[in-house]
Design brief:
single chain, mainly alpha, Cytochrome Bc1 Complex, Chain D, domain 2, 2 domains, globular, binds heme C
Length: 168
């Protein structure tokens, strides 16, 4: 799972980029270089902290064009079953079986996984939820690529039927 989390985690991406850069430096006989890189590391840490605090506090809003996208797959029992087959292994570790964001992996995460039974989640359009599942943020993985478009739409049909009211 950690492999999947990384691409959806912008902070992780920054760490990877930075460590590649410092790894490329020709170093270290004298202390000056060491001190410089220690200072650099502190700065990087500060930037990372600022970065994760800012995105944890920011509301997560899908772009309007994405929110307007219609779910091409009808919410049938067959689709809900297909969505459940995606949800159980992939989403339950964080979001929990009841969707409340209290899965076993959730304790280590900040921000916590979203409570999918919260009206703030299901009041959004299918298109908005699809965009969030596809792109991820913080510990929420980017599922685009890992799950087909169809699988993501089926999962939304499952989420609505199980945790929230269907969107009109
Ligand atoms: C590694 C843990 C993890 C896994 C696995 C995971 N999520 Fe998430 N999810 C999160 C976190 C953390 C957030 C909150 C992200 C934020 O606000 O920055 C989130 C947010 C969301 C949201 C956004 C809710 C909103 O509107 O704010 C949806 C929808 C969602 N997840 C669905 C899913 C689905 C569907 C799956 C499985 C395909 C899944 N998640 C798997 C951790 C996870």
């Amino acid at each position: 799972m950690s492999v999947r989390v990384t691409p959806g985690n912008p902070a992780g991406a920054i760490v990877a980029r930075v460590s590649r850069r410092t790894g490329g430096q020709v170093c270290c006989d004298g202390s000056a270089g060491d001190q410089r890189s220690a200072g650099k590391k502190q700065l990087i840490l500060l930037v990372l902290i600022a970065f994760s605090v800012a995105s944890a506090a920011d509301p997560w809003v899908a772009p309007r064009s994405a929110a307007r996208r219609q779910n091409p797959i009808q919410n049938t029992p067959k689709s809900v079953a297909a969505g459940k087959a995606v949800f159980m292994p992939n989403c339950v570790p964080c979001h929990g079986e009841a969707g409340r964001g209290d899965g076993p992996a959730s304790t280590a995460l900040n921000p916590k996984p979203a409570n999918l039974t919260d009206p703030k989640v299901w009041e959004q359009t299918d298109g908005a939820i699809f965009w969030k599942i596809s792109n991820g943020r913080n510990a929420m993985p980017k599922w685009e690529g890992a799950l087909s478009e169809e699988q993501r739409w089926h999962t939304i049909n499952f989420l609505r039927t199980t945790f929230g009211k269907p969107h009109p």
